[in-house]
## 1
Amino acid sequence: MRIGIAYDLKPKAALAGLPDDAFEEYDGEETVTFLAAALGSLGHQAVLLGGGRGFLERLQGEPVDLVWNLAEGCGGRCREAHIPAILEFLGVPYTHSDPLTLAATLDKAVAKRLVSQAGVATPPFTVAHTRGDISAAARLPGPLFVKPLDEGSSKGIRGNPICRNRGELEERVGWLLAIYGRPVLIESFVSGREITVGVIGNRVSDGGQGPALLGVMEVLPRGGCDPDFVYSLEVKRDFANRVSYKAPPDLPHSQLLRVEEAALAAYEALECRDVARIDFRLGEDGVPYFLEANPLPGLNPKTGDLPILARLMGIEHGELIRRILEAALGRLERASTRLAAVPEAAVAAGRI
């Protein structure tokens, strides 16, 4: 197959007037190179389509059978939905979740509401659109954790985002609103272990065999056990020196099972497709608290949490790519069969 890769690349230099993590979610050229090589090793031809305003023109000039979507988009909480929406409009099949799921998961408050309705615990929260909204946080059990509402890759989670009094909260929220110009999520901080879960697959109704666990991984600070450890931007940028990863984590079987069940429930509630990474804090009460979901997880085999998790579980990068692709193709085959059956059913019913 000719598989187009949709992606956004980090600029080679910081842009004036923007924070230095403004494009933290964007991929480096290395990630795209590794993905293209993995697809090539599976017998496919990779076509680099990029993203942004030129994506549509490049797609029209380079017809493909499938688009592998890595694109983060630009502008607002629906930015990750831009490329998939274009592809759906054109009838071009693609990997990963659909526009609705990508928009819902990027807005962390929307995602938390959806998973909590499915019975998955999440820390109490509120959203601040202005400094005046901070008063609503008074009802939340402290301390409080503050981060941009609709960003990823730990953008804006810098220094110490844990606020233990009103003054710290006002300062942190005001800084985020001023620097990033986006709403701010304020939630009760869960003191405990940092856990992430990889999930691959699709619901049976979508042509899959049901979502399956890739594995559960704990992110541990190298300085020793710290229940207030935060996987911040600075930590991620220096992960080799500041954290270690363990998959599966040292947890009692019953607790590990509880994390796995919560991850699968969140994946289903958000209607993720093909692959996603689900983040939790394992509270001191033993409850896995949902933080957020990433249906476009980083795929750099050296730095991406999902490939690191997979490798610790004995799954190399090429095999990880094969499994994601296989999940997408199974889903697309089912959708194609279902669409082909619609005219036949309509004829039989005398409608056309």
## 2
Amino acid sequence: MTDCDCHFEARDAEQRKVLLTVFAINSVMFVAEFIVGIFAQSSGVIADSLDMLADALVYGVVLAAIGRAAALKQRAARWSGMFQLGLALCILGDVVRRAVYGSEPQSGLMMGIASVALGANAYCLSLLQTHRHGEVHMRASWIFSRSDVIANAGVILAGLLVWLTGSRWPDLIVGSAIAAVVVKGGVEILREAGA
């Protein structure tokens, strides 16, 4: 085994360790946020939970690409971008449903779970920071976490505005904004993957 082979094995092991950690965090946060989002009647929280689910699925795809050929890594990144775009459509569907049929978002629950999610995503982002200029599949993972931090801050702001105004519209606006952030991230990943 050459020094070069050892370097690649060490790099792959490091990537695998980071991705397993962020996969676990996103999976747990998806379940927690989805449950709280239902009780909180919050499009923003549900949108954020679905974003966590998409991220967890993408991290699983990216994990499968580690140590594989560059073409497979590029394909994994492409799938990641498409997952993000599909997620955005689901989020927009929930926002439209709540806009038409109504909702009464609970600001305290929104801000509480979004604060926990912000901490979790900030930690994921810090783990992925050293890989943000690496291979395409790792750059895609970093983009996901960066988008999540923005979305969490938006849900906290929406919760505060719901509390201050007594209106559901800040929640719906933030749900729509999360969809836009997700679309932006998906397009960015597809561009990085050469799609």
## 3
Amino acid sequence: MINKSFMEVNKEHLQALAELPEDQELLMLNLLRYKDRVEETGLTGETAYKQYMMAASPFFEKVDAEIVFFGSPELMLIGPEDQELWDDILLVKYRNAGEFFKMTQAKGYPSELREQSLQDSRLIYCKPHIK
């Protein structure tokens, strides 16, 4: 089995996200796997991601985004025992997709720090069933 890393955005899905109704809350699940070492800085990926989070915090605040959860998975209660868990999980709530785009496209948003720190990731839009 070939291990494939995912760091690039799916442009079709990004367009679908942009077309969500303005009154629809956005919940984004981030699954994170850090690099052992970041070439550009010599830091661990985990340390570099913490720097990204500190640099991104003002951008989260400007769009009134809420970090619902940021932590590490510890035990696989249901699922394959031989599957490696993600290093960290980040769950962020935005008022709507427009706020997400406003944040990620803002001048100075530190996306390069995120990219440098990660070996692999998943960014998953989660649609609420209940308002």
## 4
Amino acid sequence: MSETTSSQSPEGRDDAILPFAVEPLDVRGRAVRLGPSLDTILRRHGYPDTVARLLGEATALTVLLGSSLKFEGRFQLQTKSDGPVDMVVVDFEAPDRVRATARFDAGRVAAAGPRADTAQLLGHGHLAMTIDQGSVQSRYQGVVALEGQGFEEAAHQYFRQSEQIPTRVRLAVAEQVEGSGEAWRAGGLLMQFLPHSPERARLADLPPGDLPEGHTFLDDSANREDDAWVEAKSLVATIEDHELVDPTVSSERLLYRLFHERGVRVFEAQGVHEACRCSRERVMGMVRNFSAEERRDIVGEDGRIGITCEFCSRHYDLDPAEVEAEIVGGQPA
């Protein structure tokens, strides 16, 4: 690990997660920059710009959260709501693989207009964050109600109610001119207050108990946030969107700008890339789990079973006879 400087470094590359710590303020966090990996995901589906920005935010948030896993497993962010974008799914497979997809109503997205923000596109519903270590017993899920807020506030709400860790998240997405064309980019920063004393990490709360009418609660010491956390939040609040997506402003340079007076340290960067988990074997296994009637229903007019991955758009062409032979023979898919 090293102290940041204001110059570019290998840690300033795209598609990378940069952990950091500001020890005098008792905060730790991660900054992420997504370039080619995100552009691949969004270009593949040709999403409308507003949907692309929304999915870019969700992808950056998922990478920020999923990269905290200390084991080989999956972190999934999924929304289900009544808005023009009724479903978003982002998978992060530790330590460095991400894929994402969104389902939307093209007419409603168009009616929302080019300035529609994430909150307007999501509407009301819920956001689920799932940690999967490979078995049902080791699966954990936290759910946040979507009530007209965007991904940043939903993340804050999740940490308030589930983890009870003071947390701040900033996300930004933009389509920028790069080289001979345009490319999608996203950036994000997650910062958490993690002092050694649990008393200092306690979130601000309402004064305890109900006061008799006419009385005023004067001592707000239990209701006051820690000064270090207030300072850290104030610094993060100064981040401009362009600082999170500008390729000339690395994560290191941004962290230096925010915290150089306190002394910020960065750790080894972790690369991240777009990669789908689908394969012919996985698809065959999925089809084998269908009932005989369901398998007959998905056979097309050409006598084949055609399945397209919602994440990477790869098309799988299966022979129904081969599927049935594997089921009868009990061969592993």
